[in-house]
Write a structure and sequence with these properties.
single chain; about 140 residues; mainly beta; five-stranded antiparallel sheet; about 35% strand; globular; binds zinc ion
Length: about 140
Amino acid sequence: MADGYNKPIPIPQPESDNYWEGTKAGELRLRHCDDCNQAYFYPRNICPECGNNNTSWIVASGNAKIHTFAIVHRPPHPGFMDDIPYVPAIVELEEGPKMATQIVNVEADPSKISIDMAVKVVFESITDEISLPKFEPA
Ligand SMILES: [Zn+2]
């Protein structure tokens, strides 16, 4: 664990190992259904749309737009105390899927952040194995 990192840390699962290897390598990897030709998130072997397992991995562009966001002043976990105010968000990736993340490198002020604002992925290394995908203004 990185010194001083005291937030919850994701635990890779068999279906998400490649996703976490990707974020560590600076890539946002998504599952893609080769039958109904769409990307989806979170990573799993079975397509959530058509139920087939003819799926593969793709590397996302990292471009997205903000679907919704909040500005947190009272953190749900003591590890986030030093970060307040911070901006958890749902972003819609260029490839279609939505994912939960955090908007960074922007002032946590509602006049500086808006729905549909263009953002791009950045990676925060938190341990030797885990880097978290976050998004900053594009
Ligand atoms: Zn499908």
